[in-house]
Amino acid sequence: MNGKQITKDNHYLAQSYLKHWQSSKGKVWCYRTLVSHENIPTWNETHVEGTAFFTHLYSRIEKGSVSDEMEHWFGSEFESPVSAVLSKVLKNDILKPDDWRTLVKFLALHDLRTPARLFEYLERGSETTMGVMQNVIDNFPKDLDNFQKRENEATPIEENIYSFPFKVTPKVIEGEESVSLKIETDIGRASWLYTIQHQMRNTSTILNEHRWTILHSSFGQNWFTSDKPVMRLNYHKGKYDFKGGWNSKGTEIIFPLSPQHLLYTKIGAKPPQRGTRLSADKTSSINKLIVEHSFRNVYSKERNNEIGHLKARLVNLEQFNYEKEFWQKWHLEQGKSENYFF
After folding, report:
1. Does residue 340 lie in a domain region?
2. 161 lies in which domain range?
């Protein structure tokens, strides 16, 4: 480790972002949608640095040591560059094309790296994993002489700090032309981080092709934000869901940037003029969607006594303890897998 200080508290909402909702210095109001007991206050004023994070959420074990390369990548590539742009947004300054691209990358990051998206990935991870496995099999080298030199050597799919947890162990049987392959993988932290990296470096570029704008909340009203801040909203025959894609025509992508500013696009449509101030009813409607779309936390600049009508919190000790235990075991269990693959 050479004395290097590892960043272990990984915030899935950038602290510089969440501070825009400050109710007092360094604090925001938080409404939790899952609590262990009914006597827990509806709203809690919490420190920005003490919320929206989990320990070692983005770490990885590599060669027996903890790596925080992913956390530093998030910071240097997406969080630091957006700071100056967000300052422009808050002052309603003119944004250049590069500024819009920086904002959109920041949006993509906050769409992908949340705990809610992690749980979605763990539920559907087998689909992604099978695609990667098939790609490796289809492109596996045919040179048996090369295999013979590396017989029984476990080989990761690629050599970089965000490698997919994937090992192929080839075994050449002397006198035969066929090769036996042992293929191993795991659906967990390492494969999730690999997927985020791939999407941020490749797929997210499609978002730059859309026409974006920034909308303002109604006078006297503020936007909420949440631990799942990017909405991909679909309307169909009077109904709606949050299953839109990054390039699905008609999908509305919504990301609160501050209590007064909202990054918005409707794919395939011309957006409202930047700076458009929405009506009180429209502001309330979007706030309702923000709360509904949240996972475990809603954040606000002030307490809103009506929030229970927007999304009633769940009082469930069993579910609360299950999730608490999940996060307590997260780093240890994922580390065992990563030790094996890396």
Report:
1. no
2. 128-185
